[in-house]
TrEMBL record:
InterPro entries named in the record: RVT-Znf
One Pfam family hit: zf-RVT
Organism placement in taxonomy: Eukaryota, Viridiplantae, Streptophyta, Embryophyta, Tracheophyta
Protein name according to UniProt: Reverse transcriptase zinc-binding domain-containing protein
Domain of life: Eukaryota
Species assigned in the record: Crotalaria pallida (Smooth rattlebox)
Location of the Reverse transcriptase zinc-binding domain: 59-145
Length: 234
């Protein structure tokens, strides 16, 4: 399928989608377009991969490490999101949240895709829906986290960023099945918040936080049982 055409020496991208885009996808398309604009295509020659963190364009582990240490690459590899304690789509969501790539209303407002008047949190409708507000500070989310932490007899203060919250959670040293359970509580909470947020935004479905809290607990318990069985009968 043609993805565009040459307008003189300039390549113009043309996207044809199989279905109408959802609102949250429009933001991703705008982001893709901005990324594509950074590159100018040559009319002749073959495509070759170019690693931009090394002078000659060749990838090496050393150049990657140097770039990461110099913070040229905003990487989340060190965060170790991919722990195998939740389905891949859940891990991907966590990665997107930590990378600040999730299309909250605040982000869509910055991209001028929604009006300022529509940028409030769908749960409380009091504060702009930033990542931090939605996943940490909104009353709805805060109650979910507290409910989960109560099971582990932990009291804490919510930090200012999701990244710090993730670090605090993952640095709470635990081992074996207990560690897996602990990690999965984090993943289950973030997933549930985003899932029910979307239910509210796109289907106008309200949910009581207590129902979500028990859903999270049951999900973690089911996975815990699975891991215990694996542990007992490897
Ligand atoms: Zn809120």
């Amino acid at each position: 399928m043609d993805m565009g055409l040459w307008n003189g020496l300039q390549w113009c991208w043309i996207f044809n989608w199989r279905r109408p885009l959802f609102q949250w996808e429009k933001g991703q398309v705008e982001e893709l377009k901005m990324k594509l604009e950074e590159a100018s295509l040559a009319i002749e020659g073959n495509d070759v991969p170019h690693w931009r963190f090394e002078e000659r364009g060749n990838y090496s582990t050393k150049s990657f490490t140097t770039a990461v240490l110099a913070r040229e690459i905003e990487t989340l590899t060190s965060k170790n999101v991919w722990r195998g304690v939740a389905p891949p789509r859940v891990e991907l969501l966590i990665w997107l949240v930590l990378a600040g790539k999730i299309n909250t209303r605040s982000r869509l407002k910055k991209m001028k895709l929604i009006h300022q008047d529509n940028a409030n949190c769908p749960f409380c409708n009091r504060v702009e829906e930033s990542i931090e507000h939605l996943f940490l500070h909104c009353d709805f989310s805060w109650k979910l986290w507290c409910h989960s932490l109560l099971d582990w007899k932990i009291e804490t203060v919510m930090p200012g960023s999701v990244e710090t919250w993730f670090d605090m959670w993952m640095n709470n040293i635990k081992t074996g099945v207990e560690a897996k359970l602990w990690w999965s509580v984090f993943y289950a909470n973030v997933w549930a918040i985003w899932f029910h947020r979307n239910k509210k935004v796109f289907e106008n479905k309200e949910v009581d936080w207590t129902d979500v809290a028990y859903l999270i607990k049951s999900r973690v318990c089911v996975r815990g049982l699975y891991w215990c069985v694996l542990f007992v009968f490897p």
